[in-house]
Every structure is written in C-alpha cells, then in structure tokens.
Amino acid sequence: MSMTATRVQHESAEPIELAEPEHALWRDSIRRRCGLDFSEGRRRFLSQRLRERMSLLGIESYGEYYRFVEHDFEGGREWQRLIELLLINETSFFRHPPSYEVLATYALPELMRERPGQQPGEDFIRMWSAGCSTGQEAYSMAMIFPRAAGAGQSWQTRIVGTDISERALAKARRGHYRKHELRGLPERFAGRHLAPAEGEPGVYKITDDVRAHVRFARFNLAGADDFYMPEQDVIFCQNVMIYFSLDSRREIFARLCRQLRRGGYLFLAPGESVGLQHPGATPVRVHDTMIHRRAE
Amino acid sequence: MIRNLKIWQKLALLAFAFSIPIAVLLYLLVAEKNIAINFAEKEKMGTVYHRPLRKLLEAVPQHARAAAGSEGASDSASRADAAIRELEGLDQQLRSELKTDEKFNALKDKWLELKSKEASAGPDVRRQLHADVVAGIRGLIAHVGDTSNLILDPDLDSYYVMDAELIKLPESQDLIAQTLQYGKEITARKALTPEEKTQLIVWLGLLRSNLDAVKAGMKLAIDNNASGSLKPLEGQVQNYAATTAAFLDLTDQRIANAPTIDLTPEEYEAAGVKALSASFGLWDEGTQSLDGLLQARIDGFNSRKFNTFIGVAGIGLVTLLLAWFIVRSITRPLAEVVSVANRLAKGDLSVEISATSTDETGQLMKSTGDVIAYLKETASVADQIAAGNLSVRVEPKSADDRFGTSFKNMLDSTLSLVQSRDERDELQKGFMTLLGEISDVANGDLTVEAEVRADATGAIADSFNFMIVQLREIINNVKETTQQVSTSATEIQTTTETLASGSEEQSEQITETSSAIEEMAVSIQQVSENAVLSATVADQARTNAKQGATAVQNNINAMQRIREQVQETAKRIKRLGERSQEIGEIVQLIDDLADRTSMLALNASIQAAMAGEAGRGFAVVAEEVERLADRSTNATKQISSLIKSIQSETNEAVAAMEDTTREVVEGSGLANEAGQALTEIEGVSDRLAELIQSISQASKQQARGSEALAKSMSVISGVTQQVASGSREAAVSVKGMVSLAETLRSSVVAFKLPETNGNGHHRNN
C-alpha cells in the first residue's frame, strides 16, 4: 500500500524542468563563475542537479535558489556545494590509449633528445594533467613515464594534477580506487603500481613510487585565478573542454598553449581541437593522433 | 570555576574587580597633578634663567650710554661679562630643558663682537652693535618664556606678573634706555633735527602705552591674587609708574616739544636712570613674587596629591573593613547551618540552632531550627508508639507534609489492623509463615508453592499459587518468544545490512555510470558541433570549387581567344614575308636597270672618247651616270640582304607563333582537366556535406538516446537510493528490535522455573 503510494507520488511529482528566464540566469551565472556551459543541450542535467540541492534546502523555485546562491550570506558556501554536483568526474586510467602511446614513443623521447645537456635541476620533465578529476590521468602519465625515460637514465618527472572539484581532488590525493575504477589499466601496470588497500576489501591504492611524482591542487581553468605554475613540457587536457562554452574553450586553449614550455606538447582529446588555434602552437599529427607543439 | 569558590573568595573577587577602576582613577588623578607640578617646575626654571638676563639687560645699555673707553664703560662691561658667565653656567644646566644653547651662543658672539669692534667703531656702528645685543637679550628672554611654559601660565595673577617680567618690562627698559641715550646726545648738542623729533615721539608713544599696559596688568595680577602675596608689589608699581611718567614728561616737554633745549645731559640721565632702576626694581620684586607664586602652586599640588593618596587609602581601608564584616556575617551563620545539617544528616537530633539575624542567613538558620524541632517531635511520637502507647495523635503540619501524612497513615493503619493483641498475634504468625513460604518469589524463584491453610491466609495462598502458575507460563512464553525473535531478527539484520551495502554500492556505480553517460552526451554534443563546423567547411570547399571551376572556364576561354589572336598574327606575318619577296623582285629589276645603265654609260663614254674634244663634256656625264649606277647596285644589294634577314625573322616568328599556339592548346587541355577535377571536388564536397549531415543527425539521435538513458538512470538511481535508505532504516529498526528482545530476555532470565515446565501444575484449589 505504502509502496504504491510512494510510486504514484514519485510519478505524479514529475519534476518541472528549468525554463526561461531562470535558465538564462543560471546559465550566465555559471558561465561567469567557472566557464562551464549549460546551454540548451545540458538544461535537463542542470535542472536535475539544481533540484537535488533545492530539495535538500527546502527551496521551491529555481529563481529563489538563484537569489539564495547569488545574494545570501551563505551563498558562497552553497555555490561550492552546487559546483561539486555540476561537475562530471568521469575519467579512467589510460582513457585514450593512442595519446599515451604518442606520449611515450614520440613526445617524451623528442623532449629528452632536444635537451641533451642535462643540467642539475633540468633533468626532469614537467607534466600537467589539467582537469584531472579523480587523478587517474595524472597517475597514468606517471606510470608510463619510465618507459620513455629508459633504464639507467636520470630523467625524472614532476606531475601536477589540477581540478576545480575539491571532492575529486581529495579522492585523487588519496589514490584509492575500486576495482571497476581500474578499467583501462593494463595488467602490467596494475601489477606493478597498485596494492590492495588495508581494511578495505575491493579497493586498491596507488603505490608510493608513483604517488611521489604526482601532486594535486585546486585550479579553475576558466577562472581568472592567479595560479603560479612553471612552464610545462607536457599538458594533458582531455575531455575537459567539451564542458565549456566555445569562448571559454578558446581562452583555455590559449592559456594551455601559453603554459607550455618551448617545444612542449599539448594533448587534447580527439575532436576537441576542432575550431581552436593559437599562434604559438603548431598542430602535429603523430600516428593518427593530433597533438599541439609549442613553437621554439 | 566561579561556582567552586568559597563565598569569601567570591566576595574578595568582587571587591578586587571594583578596586581596579578605583586604582585607575587614582593613577589618573596623581598623573594629572604630576603634570601640573612638572609644568610649574619648568616655569621656575624660566625665572631662574631670567635673572642673569636681567643683569645683562641693565648692563648693556649702560655700556652703550657710557663713552667708549670711560670708567663707566669698563665697569658696565665687566658686569655684563659677569652676567654672561653666570648665564653660561646656567645654560649648561638648562639648555636641554629650555633649548637655549643656539640663541645664547648667538648672544654671546654678539657681545664679543661688540667688545672687539667698539674701540674702532663710529657712534652709529657702536649704537647698532648695542642694539643688536639688546635685541639678542630680549629674544632670549622671550624664547625662555616660550620653552619654560611661562607664557602658558594657567593662573591669572602669575600670568600677568609673568607677562610684565617677560615682555612689558624688558620692552620698557629697552625703550627707556634708547630714549635716554638719544635724548642725552640731543641735550649735549642742544639741537633737535625733525627726524630725531619724530623718533622721540614714536618712542614716547610706545613707552606710554607700555606703561599703561604694565600698570593695568599689575593691577589685574594683584586684584586676582588670593593669597595677597603680591601686595608688596603695589609700591614698586607706583614708584615705577611715577618715575617713568616723570621721565616721559621731561623728554616730551623739555626736549621733543621744547622751543629751546636747556636741559643738561646729566639732569636728563639722572631722570632716565631713576626710571630704569625703578623698572628693574619692579622686575626684581616681580621675579621674586613669581617664584613665590610658582612655589606656592607646586606646594599646593603636592599637598593635594598627598591628600588624594590619604583619602583613597582611608576609603579603601574602610571599605575593606566593611567587606570583612559583610563576609563574616554571611559565612559564619552558613558555616553553623552546614555543621548542623551535617550532624542532622547523620541522624543526630541533639543539635540546636537559633537565628542570630533577620537576613536570609538568619532565615535559613531559623528554618533549620524548625526542621530539627519537627524531627524531634516526630521522633518522640515514634518513641512513644514503640513503647506501646498507641494513643498518641499525629497531625500533618500542612497538606504538603508528606512525612507527617505518611506517619499518620502508618499509625492509622496499624490501629485499624490491630484490633486486639491476640488477633494481631495470630494474623501475624499466619502472615509470617506465608511470607516465609513465598519470599523467594521476590528473588525470581517460581518453583515455590504456598501451603493453603484454613485461616485468613488460605485465600491469599491459593490466589498466590494460581498467580505463580500463570507467571510460569508467561515467563516460559516470553523466554521462548524472545529467543525466536532474537534469532530471526539477527537473520533479518544480516540480510538488510547486506542489502543496504549492496544497494549503496549499486547506487555508487549508478552514479558513476550516470557520469559516464552524461560525459557521453556532452561528447556527442561536441561531435554534433564538430559536424556542424565540418558542414560549414565542406560547404565552403564546394563554393570554392565552384568558384575555381568558373575561374578555370574563364581561363580556357581566354586561352582560346589568345590562340585565335596568335593565329591571326601569324597569318599577317606570313603575308609580310610574301610581300618582302615581292620587294626582292622589284629590287632585282632595279638591279638589272642599274646594270644596263652602267653598260649604257660605258658605251656613252666610248662614244665620247671617240668624239674627241667635243665629247669631253659628255664623257664627264657618262662617268657620273656610271657612278650612280654603281651606287644603285650597292643599295639594291643592301636591300636584298635586309629582305633576306626579314624573311628569316618572319619565318622564326611564325615558328614561335606556332609553338605558342601549341602551348596554348596544351594549356587549355590542362585547364579543362582542372575544371573537371574541380567539378569532381564539388561533387565530393556535396557527398561530404551529406555524410556530415547524416553524422549530425545520428549524433542528435544519439544525444536524445543518451538523454533518455540519463533520465532512466536518474530514476533508477532514485529508486536505488530509496532502497538503500529503506534497507538502512530497516537494519536500524531490526537492530532496535534485537536489543529490545535482548532486554526482555535478560529481564525474565532472573526467574527460576521448575524442571517439569510449569504446565504440569494445576490449580491447587
């Protein structure tokens, strides 16, 4: 009886989707704050996530919730909670295998070849996983690095992963993953760089030899935050820009290109670089994978 | 923490808290007094510094008046030197306080300069040197007045004395001295220039107003002097006013405005010196009075400071005493009540207490005394009852008196129960037996059975036995049921916990899957966007190809036209070549004609030779004709070679034209091929656009699909979350049930049951 009642209620309370003009308000506000794009195509998703917060706060209308986030004393903190819901933390180890292949067999060897005089402090390659989500990308870069560095060489790497989501960063820093989150990780890496977590069945942790090379920090790619970072030899930014508006995409692309060291490489996901160009970066096609190289 | 302090400690804390602002106030009061004392002390410093300055101010004008090198001059110079030395000593001590060193050193330098230069200087320079020194002295006086606070003196009497000392009297002394020196020179000459007259009148005016100001100021000072210590000044003021007025009148009537000057310099100087010494006399007296006033002020402040200390200390002492008494008046009765209550708590009713005051502590003592009295009374009643006296009566003190009421009820029941001693004994015996039999039940032993006797306890024992049987059954049922409940609840708990953790994991996976789907949706959107972009590019390519094809066609047309033109040109050139052939024929003809002419000329010359002298003239003509014929032949030869070269060049041109034509034909062929390729590109672009269109359509469809998928995932997620939270709740409530059953079981475990399972018992009626 009660089950039926619940279901009936659930069906009858078919949620009202975000409509104009509230949709425009929210879309513009979010774009202004973090560059994420919630135009028509993502309206349903936005409505769903807004409702999730609203039902917790007991707020009835999108407009009222907007005023709360924008003008209330507690609005700033609420925005932090909301942004966590608006982000899609989808990632996996070696998500686009050809990119890693190109990294290990082309980009890294080129970088090491061009810098033969290894000065002290110059014998490491800086890599950046921009929009690292829960950290798999950064760890993948760290795992594949030794393949390019070769045995008996002193090449080191420093990898930084950045993301806007504190929740994702916390997970990334911890470096604990469930079995199904390890999909895509080749067996040889899993055997070498993963160990079962103590007291947590079905959970594996990244071993310290990989974690030692990777750091994580919060950074809004589309924001105006001042974030000091040395120029990078390699930047991975895959399946991140698809969430941004075209304008933001262009800005982020330019920012990433500027952040590259001369001769450094930028890896975007296939299809992401359509319509993007920067005077400092030349597109290079290696084994059917398009990467961008910063001009010397 | 405050709560655990003793009352006297709390009060001491309070007193301490109050004493802080008092101490601060005291400190502020004393500090204020100290400021005033320091202020006056500094003023005194100023008056001390003024004394040698005054000597200097007296000596320097004297020196100015005395003739250079005279005895009067060396006397006043040595006095001025002494004053400078005295001043130097003072300056060493006070310069840090009064900041005088710079001005003093300047004054000293001026004086030394005066001494070194005066012997050789003329009267005007000498006068100027003295005026500089006097200005330096007055400047130093004013400066010391500023830095020593004298100028800021707060009291009316001392202020006006200071004003005279610091400003008015030095000014008057300076003015008198200058007037005197001036007037002395005039009386010596017995003549007065208009400029000197004007100067004198100005000084007289200044002196008059200065005199009025000094008189008014001194009057104000004396009138406002409460202690009367300035009274002696009055005589000095009058003396000063009289002598100065006399000097003024003398100067005015006998010099400045006199028709003839008959006054001797000595007479005039006597009057001036008298006025000056009166002025200095007033100055000295004033300085002394000022010192007295300042010292009196300092003493006054010091004594007030002392009084403040004494007053505050006295009040503080009184307050402390009062506080001690108050604390004692609270803590002593309380201590007494506490000790009485402690003894009462041990049951000692022999204590006594009586109120020593009417305040709250007194009331507390009185109430405690009342309690003791009441307890004593009740104890004595109980003692009487214990002694067998049941005739005593107990009345409750009030409706709230629980103790009294209970006591009365006890007494009443006892009375009503015990009708007679025998009856009571018998009943008691019966009850005691019954009690002995059933007392174990209280400990949970349900195996007992009471004996049913014929007396009044029989019915009770029978009912009791029946109750025991019932109880056994209940307890047995409870034990079994709780066991079952506990077992099945534990199973349910395990199941729900598994379910909860399972559905939580499921929920997590669904969330992740949703993320993947959402990203897929966004990706598809990206593909769709890219497709749109590609479509634009393909469209652009098609347009470009079309434009290229048109351009190529235009090119082909242009080439065709070029070919035609070239062919036309070639024809014309060929025709030109043919024409040159004709020219050659004509030239040949001319050549023949020339040959023939040459032949004729030869013939003619032969004929002329034959004609002899008569043909000589003709022979000359014939020679000329032959020469012309030769030249024609040469010219035709040149023309022939020209024509030959024209012909070969036209042939070459024609050949080049033919090459060009061939190349143009080839070019057109290539352009045609390009045009064809462009048309093919156009077709390919069209197909490409179609393909892209279909990609776009497909991705749109995919987007719709993934949206639907995401929607269903969110529904599934909701349901899973509900299941998870439901099973969590269920697990929690089952846990509660298990603990309830456990509680129930442990509460009945104390009951002891017979081995044969209470069912075998029957009512023993």
Task: Write structural notes for this entry.
The complex is a heterodimer of chains A (296) and B (765). By secondary structure, chain A is an alpha/beta fold. Chain A has 2 domains: 2-86, Orthogonal Bundle (Chemotaxis Receptor Methyltransferase Cher, domain 1), CATH 1.10.155; 97-294, 3-Layer(aba) Sandwich (Rossmann fold). In chain A, 43% of the residues lie in helices and 19% in strands. Chain A contains 11 helices and 10 strands. The longest helix of chain A has 18 residues, at 97-114. Mean pLDDT of chain A is 86; it is low at 1-13. Chain B has 13 helices and no strands. Chain B has helices at residues 7-65, 71-98, 101-117, 123-147, 156-189, 194-223, 233-256, 265-345, 360-386, 402-417, 421-438, 457-610, 616-748. Residues 758-765 of chain B have low confidence and may be disordered. The chains are: A alpha/beta (296), B mainly alpha (765). The interface between A and B is medium-sized, with 19 and 23 residues.
Low-confidence stretches of chain A: 1-13
- Proportion of strand residues of chain A: 15-25%
**Gap between N and C termini of chain B:** 68 Å
C-alpha end-to-end distance of chain A? 73 Å
Topology of this protein?
The complex is a heterodimer of chains A (296) and B (765).
Chain A: H1 2-12, H2 22-34, H3 43-57, H4 62-71, H5 75-86, H6 97-114, E1 124-130, H7 136-149, E2 156-163, H8 166-174, E3 176-178, H9 187-193, E4 194-196, E5 203-206, H10 208-211, E6 214-218, E7 232-237, H11 246-259, E8 260-268, E9 281-286, E10 289-294
Parallel strand pairs in A: 1-2, 1-7, 2-6, 7-8
Antiparallel strand pairs in A: 3-5, 4-5, 8-10, 9-10
Helix pairs in contact in A: 3-5, 4-5, 6-7
Chain B: H1 7-65, H2 71-98, H3 101-117, H4 123-147, H5 156-189, H6 194-223, H7 233-256, H8 265-345, H9 360-386, H10 402-417, H11 421-438, H12 457-610, H13 616-748
Helix pairs in contact in B: 1-2, 1-4, 1-5, 1-8, 2-3, 3-4, 4-5, 5-6, 5-8, 6-7, 7-8, 8-9, 12-13
